[in-house]
Protein backbone atom coordinates (compact mmCIF):
# COMPACT_ATOMS: atom_id res chain seq x y z
CA UNK A 1 0.00 0.00 0.00
CA UNK A 2 2.84 2.41 0.78
CA UNK A 3 4.24 1.91 -2.75
CA UNK A 4 0.94 3.08 -4.24
CA UNK A 5 0.90 6.14 -1.99
CA UNK A 6 4.43 7.03 -3.09
CA UNK A 7 3.39 6.91 -6.74
CA UNK A 8 0.37 9.10 -5.98
CA UNK A 9 2.54 11.59 -4.08
CA UNK A 10 5.12 11.59 -6.85
CA UNK A 11 2.39 12.27 -9.40
CA UNK A 12 0.95 15.15 -7.39
CA UNK A 13 4.41 16.65 -6.88
CA UNK A 14 5.23 16.32 -10.59
CA UNK A 15 1.96 17.97 -11.57
CA UNK A 16 2.52 20.76 -9.02
CA UNK A 17 5.99 21.61 -10.35
CA UNK A 18 4.94 21.18 -13.98
CA UNK A 19 2.07 23.60 -13.53
CA UNK A 20 4.39 26.11 -11.82
CA UNK A 21 6.90 25.77 -14.67
CA UNK A 22 4.09 26.28 -17.18
CA UNK A 23 2.86 29.41 -15.39
CA UNK A 24 6.43 30.74 -15.26
CA UNK A 25 6.83 30.02 -18.96
CA UNK A 26 3.64 31.89 -19.84
CA UNK A 27 4.58 34.95 -17.79
CA UNK A 28 8.22 34.80 -19.02
CA UNK A 29 9.63 35.81 -15.62
CA UNK A 30 9.95 33.01 -13.10
CA UNK A 31 8.47 33.53 -9.67
CA UNK A 32 10.90 33.45 -6.78
CA UNK A 33 8.22 33.05 -4.13
CA UNK A 34 9.73 30.11 -2.27
CA UNK A 35 6.63 29.01 -0.37
CA UNK A 36 4.80 28.09 -3.58
CA UNK A 37 7.56 25.59 -4.33
CA UNK A 38 7.93 24.57 -0.68
CA UNK A 39 4.50 22.95 -0.34
CA UNK A 40 5.51 19.62 -1.99
CA UNK A 41 8.90 19.78 -0.25
CA UNK A 42 7.24 20.09 3.15
CA UNK A 43 4.80 17.27 2.40
CA UNK A 44 7.54 14.91 1.16
CA UNK A 45 9.85 15.65 4.08
CA UNK A 46 7.14 15.25 6.70
CA UNK A 47 5.54 12.15 5.21
CA UNK A 48 8.70 10.29 4.20
CA UNK A 49 12.19 11.42 5.17
CA UNK A 50 15.07 13.78 4.46
CA UNK A 51 16.12 12.05 1.23
CA UNK A 52 12.69 12.49 -0.33
CA UNK A 53 12.61 16.10 0.81
CA UNK A 54 15.95 16.86 -0.82
CA UNK A 55 14.92 15.09 -4.02
CA UNK A 56 11.74 17.15 -4.21
CA UNK A 57 13.81 20.29 -3.42
CA UNK A 58 16.02 19.56 -6.42
CA UNK A 59 12.96 19.04 -8.62
CA UNK A 60 11.51 22.33 -7.36
CA UNK A 61 14.71 24.24 -8.10
CA UNK A 62 14.83 22.69 -11.57
CA UNK A 63 11.23 23.64 -12.30
CA UNK A 64 11.99 27.18 -11.13
CA UNK A 65 14.82 27.79 -13.59
CA UNK A 66 13.55 25.66 -16.48
CA UNK A 67 11.24 28.31 -17.99
CA UNK A 68 14.04 30.88 -17.86
CA UNK A 69 16.33 28.50 -19.71
CA UNK A 70 13.69 27.81 -22.35
CA UNK A 71 12.88 31.49 -22.95
CA UNK A 72 16.54 32.50 -22.69
CA UNK A 73 15.73 35.25 -20.19
CA UNK A 74 19.10 34.72 -18.50
CA UNK A 75 22.08 36.58 -19.91
CA UNK A 76 24.51 33.73 -19.27
CA UNK A 77 24.30 30.13 -18.19
CA UNK A 78 26.21 31.10 -15.04
CA UNK A 79 23.26 33.25 -14.00
CA UNK A 80 20.95 30.32 -14.63
CA UNK A 81 23.09 27.93 -12.58
CA UNK A 82 23.52 30.46 -9.79
CA UNK A 83 19.79 31.11 -9.60
CA UNK A 84 19.08 27.37 -9.53
CA UNK A 85 21.61 26.70 -6.79
CA UNK A 86 20.37 29.57 -4.65
CA UNK A 87 16.79 28.37 -5.01
CA UNK A 88 17.86 24.80 -4.17
CA UNK A 89 19.64 26.11 -1.06
CA UNK A 90 16.45 27.87 0.06
CA UNK A 91 14.32 24.76 -0.42
CA UNK A 92 16.97 22.58 1.24
CA UNK A 93 17.02 24.90 4.25
CA UNK A 94 13.27 24.41 4.59
CA UNK A 95 13.77 20.64 4.27
CA UNK A 96 16.49 20.47 6.94
CA UNK A 97 14.58 22.75 9.29
CA UNK A 98 11.44 20.66 9.00
CA UNK A 99 13.37 17.41 9.40
CA UNK A 100 15.13 18.65 12.54
CA UNK A 101 11.87 20.00 13.93
CA UNK A 102 10.15 16.68 13.33
CA UNK A 103 13.01 14.78 14.94
CA UNK A 104 12.99 17.07 17.98
CA UNK A 105 9.22 16.79 18.27
CA UNK A 106 9.40 12.98 18.35
CA UNK A 107 12.17 13.05 20.99
CA UNK A 108 10.10 15.32 23.20
CA UNK A 109 7.07 13.07 22.77
CA UNK A 110 9.15 9.99 23.74
CA UNK A 111 10.18 11.62 27.04
CA UNK A 112 6.56 12.23 28.07
Task: Please summarize what this structure is.
The chain has 112 residues and is mainly alpha-helical. The chain is built from four helices and no strands.
Would you write up a description of this structure?
There is one protein chain. The protein has 112 residues and is mainly α. The chain has one domain (2-106). 86% of the residues lie in helices and 0% in strands. It has four helices and no strands. The longest helix has 35 residues, at 77-111. The radius of gyration is 16 Å and the shape is elongated. The model has no long low-confidence stretch (mean pLDDT 82).
Secondary-structure class? mainly alpha
Number of helices: 4
Name the helix and strand elements from N-terminus to C-terminus, one letter apiece. HHHH
Helix content: over 70%
- Note the gap between the termini: 31 Å
Overall average pLDDT: 82
| Strand percent estimate | under 5%
Oligomer: single chain
Total beta-strand segments: 0
**Low-confidence region ranges:** none
Domains counted in the coordinates: how many? 1
Question: What order do the helices and strands come in, and which of them pair?
Answer:
Layout: H1 2-26, H2 34-47, H3 50-71, H4 77-111
Helix pairs in contact: 1-2, 1-3, 2-3, 2-4, 3-4
Features of the shown structure:
single chain; 112 residues; elongated
Amino acid sequence: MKYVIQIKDLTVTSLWFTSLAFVNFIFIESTHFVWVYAVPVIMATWKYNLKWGLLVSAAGAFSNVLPGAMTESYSTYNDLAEDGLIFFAKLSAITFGLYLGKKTHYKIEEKR
